Model the fold of this input.
Amino acid sequence: MTGSLSSKASPQCAIPAGQAAGACPARPVSPIDDVPAAQTRAFACAAVHLARRTLSALMLATALAACSGLEADETLGWSANQLYTKAREASEDGNWPAAVKYFEKLEARYPYGRFAQQAQLEVAYAHYKDNDPVAATADCDRFIRLHPNHPNVDYAYYLKGLVNYYQNRSLFAGLTNEDPAERDPKAAREAFNAFRELSKRFPESSYTPDALERMRHLVNALSQHEVTVARWYMRRGAYVAATNRAQAAIRTYPDTPAVEEALAIMAGAYDGLGIASLRDDARRVLAQTYPTSAWLQRGQRQPFKSLWN
Done:
């Protein structure tokens, strides 16, 4: 700074002729010595501000250096065709996470291109194969909502049904110690609804025959689920609950094989409740509908209410 003192000691001054000894001139006054206190504080605040800006700049530089070490996106600058080709290659290799990534990048970067709609449909299948039924179902719903008249919308309905069809396979498994009423048949019902919508809207679709076959299986399975729950209640003496579930099976799925046991359960539940008239009504309907039923023969040897013990 101009006018600042040197850090070295001042040399011995030479005394001009005629000047008294010890009359060395005083050292030059530093500009700092002549600054008021308020201005000194202002200088200090400015120094602190400068230090903060310097620290911020250093932190930014450090962050940028760290970011420069991240892996670069190899797909930057790729065309829609390149992204679609790469996604298809990943699908053919069974690399479903990579396929999802490329399909999603394709749709995000080229939302109005000719590949975008196909990517929306194929990412649903990739999610399905990647064991992500929630994402796959959402993809199908989104495609159906955005493109209700698309030539491949029938496939979206079929895929949605297929995803949910396989989601609740444990629902139709054999009895375990688990309360079967706790098994949620929601996915099975959604699968049935998707297949039904497909068969109604697109009866000539190539996917409809398989959808109809799966619907038959779903109806039988859902009916059997209700009877399985009713049977579980019978074994625990919960006769009112058993009656309710048996009636639900008969009312909702009247043409399924499980109705035979549902009628027998109603007879047994009313027997357990001590309502003889309703027990006899249920047995009469069972005999008229299934005259050779094994439940009738067993009911002749022991009380109906004990047939599930």
In short: Residues 37-68 form the longest helix (32 residues). Residues 46 and 252 are 82 Å apart (CA to CA).
